[in-house]
């Protein structure tokens, strides 16, 4: 992705609007609070439609104290969504907190928008075809081992929490020459999580995770960069073997667990969790 555009700029989770968790930023950096209906930009989900997301979020509003009356608009790319925010097409954008902090550190026009009572969170998984039972088992095993031996925690520090202001996530070397190839779809458009640099070099947390998975499975990894909206069809058509990342509501979320799960696809065990926030222009 074009980092200059990004510097100017979820649930997915991003399912994220539904899946959005509120409020991660500094008190002095808030764009404001709302209790009225606003249009919110979110990245296209794997399967759930705008209508379905708005229906679910309206129900959540009615059952909680948020009372935001969400109206979500889908975008296929983060850069396009941020342009929509800049132009006023949407008033806020739904993002994971790690992504929001990355952007705010590079654009002083942006700030977290606080919404009272909003507390939603996503788990990040991989998606595979239902028929690929052995691949899912292998992925689950690798993720489980990475949790147990501290590799995932190390990656979180290196690629997310310990990044200095203005610093880019480190580049990642994909495993090669091992024989079998694993084609993995990434958006490359959600730094510091999912990132492909302008020269095609993979970087960021998700690519580090998939590179490590490839090493542990003794497989080459080929990254296939795909817009958010095209991920499910790429997996179903066997253009790719795995979709990286897929967000699912964490724990006992009021968002249905299967809201974004296409038929004939299965999710791996989660490898990361992040809360969802809204970002707006500073007032």
Annotation keywords:
single chain, 283 residues, alpha/beta, D-Maltodextrin-Binding Protein, domain 2, 2 domains, 11-stranded mixed sheet, 3-stranded antiparallel sheet, 9 helices, 31% helix, Solute-binding protein family 3/N-terminal domain-containing protein, signal, Solute-binding_3/MltF_N
Describe this structure in words.
The chain is α/β, with parallel strands linked by helices and 283 residues long. The chain has helices at 3-8, 15-18, 50-63, 78-87, 97-104, 133-148, 151-161, 205-216, 231-236, and strands at 32-33, 38-43, 70-75, 92-96, 110-114, 121-129, 181-186, 189-190, 194-196, 202-203, 220-225, 242-249, 265-267, 272-281. The strands form two sheets. Strands 1, 2, 3, 4, 5, 6, 7, 11, 12, 13 and 14 form an eleven-stranded mixed β-sheet that branches. It is globular. The model is unreliable at 1-30 (pLDDT under 50).
